[in-house]
Amino acid sequence: MRSVFKWAIVFVFICMLLTAGGLVGLYVYLSQDLPKINTLEDYQPATVSYVYSDDGRKIGEFYKERRVVIPLSDMPDNLINAFVAAEDSRFREHPGIDILSIFRAFVKNFQAGTITQGGSTITQQVTKSFLLTPERTYERKLKEAVLAYRIEKKFTKDQILYLYLNQIYLGHGAYGVESAAENYFGKHARELSLAECAMLAGLPQAPSRYSPFQFPERAKQRQIYTLNRMKEEGMISNMDVTKAIDMPLDIKPRKNWFIERVPFYTEHVRRYVEKKYGADALYNQGLQIHTAVNIEFQKMGRSAVQQGLLDLDRRMGYRGPSGQIPLSQIEAFCTQEAKKIPENLLTSGDIHTAVVLNVDDRNKKTEVRVGNFSGIIRLETMTWARRPNSKTAYYESKISAPSQVLKPGDIIQVQVASVPQDKDAYEFTLFQEPVAQAALLSIEAETGHVKAMIGGRDYSDSQFNRAYQSRRQPGSAFKPIVYAAALDKGYTPATVIMDSPVVYEDAQRDFTWKPQNYAETFYGPTLFREALVHSRNVVTIKILQDIGISYIIDYARKLGITSDISQDLSIALGSSGVSLLELVNAYAVFSNLGYFIEPVFITKIFDRHGNLLETSGLVRKKVIDMSTAYIMTHILESVVTSGTGKRVKALKRPVAGKTGTTNNLYDAWFLGYTPRYTTGVWVGLDQGGSLGKGETGSRTASPIWLDYMQQALEGKPIRTFTVPDGVVFAKIDAKTGLLPINESKNTVFECFKEGTVPTEYTPKPGAVTGTDDLFKQEF
């Protein structure tokens, strides 16, 4: 017996040696290509880059993985405990591997004949997330165990939790608990309640399956499971569980900061940062990008653009119903539409699809149905709905009966005008989405900070930025550049130029050009000031011809025009396409008394560690004389008080500006400034085409400018334009531009550069002028 017992002991010892040797060999084999865990010491995961407004509010995010890294101290104990209880209750006790959990998973997988369950500890999940591929094999599982053991030896439990809770994916693009807290509850992780903590802790196993957005009942069951596990582990009481289960959760779909705030502006910033710093820095390195945009100004601009385009669209006419259905299908159609109405409620201002039930010319109304709701459209709200005709002005054609526009069965868009008490007599207005587009850009005078940039009607429909990317003919909005250049070539506001027919021939292209004024008439001797105030085409062309095309192009470059400019006389009328930003820059030079200030979109950029990468300084360069800039402002003030910009007088502040309208009414502009802000507006059709008879810069663009500026300047004290040294005022004859005499019928105070005040007096009535004067007049 002793011999058998001895051999048994030897056999067991040999088996133990073999087993140990096998384990050592397996360990050596697995360790050959294991990744180094030292990389975890410098934890810098992909994280969100934020964009902020001028007052520090968040307006945009850029990321590949939406992760916000926070220290463990910013996570409430309930949050940490909830994840530990749900994912690895023995986390504080095991050395990185929980043999009991692994054995339980092994049995389950053996019974199923495939890998259906893991036994991973939190440390193993960190290993899998940071160091290994997600493949489900036993070899990978063994490597995971080895690495988890090494991690436990090198890092504290809190360090491991820090890595885990910042790295884990929790659904809907959220990586880490801070991002998930913002995603689901709209708050920081440190502000989470016990109920919210338990909800998040239930997500790691299957974030999509337990999504609180898509599957709230499943998410609730996981929350209850987590709460019960916390109670079993002694982390919370029965009372805590009951309160948390009963607490209603306000699950909030995460805001799309990019779309909801200032999308055109933020996209412009994105392109700049990605070009300068690269995609990895923008999307992974957590940049902090501070911009010059003002959120309130941006809202004002968007509101003004949308209202202006809606008003224009109504002047352009009604394009007709979107469809027609037989009367027998109306009930089925309305049943389907009712499903699209949120909570089956109509709210004032909402847009809905409706079907026409009856057209009543006698009572001047149209009966319509929206889902399960009935209502009327009154004739007085749809007199604008004429058939579109660009050759007929809106005021020349009005609708006198509903039947001229609609018939039963028509599918139309309506806007809720009023919500009645009994919900049976809604009033609607006929609606259609505008087809025209518009852009607005506003710069702060002293700093060059771009406070608002609206690139189009709706960013979700079109991401093309018409304030920056588009190049459109500016029309008469380009003329101030020509007139400013002329002032530096010896012209004065009192210079007289003959407004008379002129013909230009181009033999090479076999082309003859006979420029006309907008009103298709000629006005004879015209003062320089009056020519710009009333936007006289022929006079502007003559001035350009006199001072030279190349000189004008070089002058435009100084003012910030970078787009290609044609080498021909038509540029006097704004024939070369420019961006809205370029024109605003040019007008800002007048506002800033001859100084070009580089426009600022981004004020500062910091890296993820708070190191300053760049900051915007005031880049200010004198490009034209102060006196020239002021005289241009003085003339452009007259454009507003008595010229094509008269609508803007309603601002009731000192304002200078100029309208612009291109051939066939394709583009409408208004560029204007006060001592505080320089703002430009463009309106037109993306595909080209007439906006309609009479839709000039004055009628179409200036109301948008006015609407925005009235809001932007509300409550701010009135400022006046500063008169610089080198400018003097003198009384002149308003007709001749010379010094007045007793017989002068109309005199005005005009501004001049020092040394350029007229020295000649107006000839007495009946006096004969010299041939030199006659020649000057004819020019």
What is the strand and helix layout of this fold?
Blueprint: H1 2-31, E1 49-52, E2 58-62, E3 66-67, H2 77-87, H3 99-112, H4 122-130, H5 138-154, H6 157-167, E4 174-175, H7 177-185, H8 194-201, H9 216-232, H10 238-246, H11 257-260, H12 263-277, H13 279-284, E5 288-291, H14 295-316, E6 323-324, H15 330-338, E7 351-360, E8 365-370, E9 373-378, E10 410-418, E11 426-431, E12 437-444, E13 450-454, H16 479-487, E14 496-499, E15 504-506, E16 511-513, E17 524-527, H17 528-533, H18 537-547, H19 549-558, H20 580-591, E18 595-597, E19 602-606, E20 612-615, E21 620-622, H21 626-642, E22 656-661, E23 667-673, E24 677-684, H22 697-712, E25 727-733, E26 747-753, H23 771-778
Parallel strand pairs: 1-5, 3-4, 9-11
Antiparallel strand pairs: 1-2, 5-19, 6-10, 7-8, 7-10, 8-9, 10-11, 12-13, 12-24, 14-17, 15-16, 18-21, 19-20, 22-23, 23-24, 25-26
Helix pairs in contact: 2-8, 2-9, 4-5, 4-6, 8-9, 9-10, 14-22, 16-18, 16-21
